[in-house]
Amino acid sequence: MVTRGIRGQGSRSGGRPTLEEVAARAGVGRGTVSRVVNGSPRVSEETRAAVEAAVDELGYVPNRAARALAANRTDAIALVVPEVESRFFAEPYFSDIVRGVGAALDSTEMQLLLTIVGNDRERSRLARYLAGNRVDGVLLVSVHADDPLPELLVQLDIPVVLSGRRSENEPLAWVDADNVAGARSAVSHLIARGRRTIATITGLLDVYGAQCRLDGYRQALAAAGLDADEGLVAPADFTEEGGRRAMTELLERRPQLDAVFVASDVMAVGARQVLRERGRTVPDDVALVGFDDSAIAHRMDPPLTSVHWPIEEMGREMTRVLLAEIADRRPATTRGTKGRQIVLPTKLIPRASS
Amino acid sequence: MVTRGIRGQGSRSGGRPTLEEVAARAGVGRGTVSRVVNGSPRVSEETRAAVEAAVDELGYVPNRAARALAANRTDAIALVVPEVESRFFAEPYFSDIVRGVGAALDSTEMQLLLTIVGNDRERSRLARYLAGNRVDGVLLVSVHADDPLPELLVQLDIPVVLSGRRSENEPLAWVDADNVAGARSAVSHLIARGRRTIATITGLLDVYGAQCRLDGYRQALAAAGLDADEGLVAPADFTEEGGRRAMTELLERRPQLDAVFVASDVMAVGARQVLRERGRTVPDDVALVGFDDSAIAHRMDPPLTSVHWPIEEMGREMTRVLLAEIADRRPATTRGTKGRQIVLPTKLIPRASS
DNA sequence: ATCACACATGGGAGCGCTCCCACAGTACCT
DNA sequence: AGGTACTGTGGGAGCGCTCCCATGTGTGAT
Lengths: 354, 354
Prior knowledge:
The structure is a homodimer. By secondary structure, chain A is an alpha/beta fold.
């Protein structure tokens, strides 16, 4: 290996000042400077002032590597996105999450590491990275049910917060939207508008959130005393094409339907196309409600009623929970669920489609 | 300050193994393990095998903080984007750059830190971060001429590579597209198609790249022996609205023009609108060529001829140059420009607009 | 056989911090 | 007067590595 000739590069002469140098300048001990820099209250006012002056004069900035080594913390958290890059940039979801996380971190000294894990090579690199003690905690967004990352993090005993649960009894910390209530409000809204034969197009049902949205649909029907008709439930996969197929199926099976609750806006786009092709008008013949309140919802013709969920706030909450987990560090098994598992409210945004 | 109770968390019992433990297990010294882990050739085959076995058995992963402290390097580089988040996610440019950087880093142990600096608060946080010795080098994209970041990095003696120059004699390392040749090829193409009164809409002329594109325009005219007519040059600002204004101006000043070279696709969209409003057909009345070959170029009606530049490759090259700078660490002033300043070729993509 | 020189190896020193123990000083009780 | 308690402070130990020097051990030339 090539000798890097780095040693000494940043030392004594002209390099970054060290704690010791600040201490010498301020005429105090190393420990005292450390206390001042870290905001410990156990320092007298005069001493603090003297140290702060020395810090300013020398332009002292703590060496993070040294701090990380000595304190066994890094003051950095990772936002891990197990998706290919293109999706990361394409979906507004991630942009909102990043904004929320950034906002929550703004008042902190924590640094955010954005890690996009698109393939297995990158995944194993991340695993090595995490094992190398490089972050204090991990925010895991868009995690699939079979992803090994959460398990890995548990093994490494690194605090983690998920966006969304993987199942009803998710043991890890998470922040999730209230999908059940969101779906319920959508379907109740359709009922309130006089619809009686309400179908639903679901997402991939092994995704927990999709299951919740279906549950909400059923609850709303039950609450209104409407019969549950399994012929009105068409499973799909969150894609536009899936929405097309499911809508086609529904029209064949239950031509008399007068409303559809679609579990994502993207699928609603597909459903809308099929309705137009079959000559059904929206909302007169068939009312349509989507989920996600994404940008396409506005742009549809007619604009799509949709269930909004606060993505940016999810980012903020996830960060808050993670910072708490980090501060409260103790064996993961002794932590309860309180305050570590958070449901955020959803909100129906009525538009012309219903 | 609250006692964190962290110390010991990752030590002896059950925690991450250390070099020393691997050494004990393999029956060798600490130095030898370090050599094996870092791929030094000065280790015998048997010893290497024994150490590697011990590493595997214990699941040893080097502690990066310790390594960073001891070796004064971090094995991480930052990609700094001085833009608001929304632009970062909106512009395909950044996604391509990130892809290129990721590709170049794929075979490395280097970690990428994505840092979006949207406001001054974040900028000063970044400054503190960089001063804290946290990265070995910085990739600076989309840097504005008056941004203080490059200077800061020079002062901190942190290797940096820019995407694009700030001026003709950019002293820092950079990777840039050949804007002059790109513009020249666009205008030569128009000349070859028989156009004789060729106007241009420029970008913000205090951006060096915009200046280059204007130079290329002039060179192509001169090479063809066409007169330079300053009335055919309309300065704009890279926005769609700017393109509209400039096109309007040009049509008033030189109604006889038969072609326009527009220094960005976005401005070309604006120009196209004005031409349509004035009843000028494209390409019959006026031929149009853009720059950037962005997604909108395909979608225009007619599809826009545009100058392509290899953004992903820029990301790759920037990374390559930065890694070389880091490996070759020595006083910045003694480094020449060779291999540190790279021009990548552009390519004209002819479409129906010309 | 002797010297010279390579190569492989062990381990000390030290990177710049945090943590914590020890100690001095002061204050307030008994 | 001594005891206890607390506060502010200095500095040792140690985090887990890398770098390098010293030491061994083997090889070939003399």
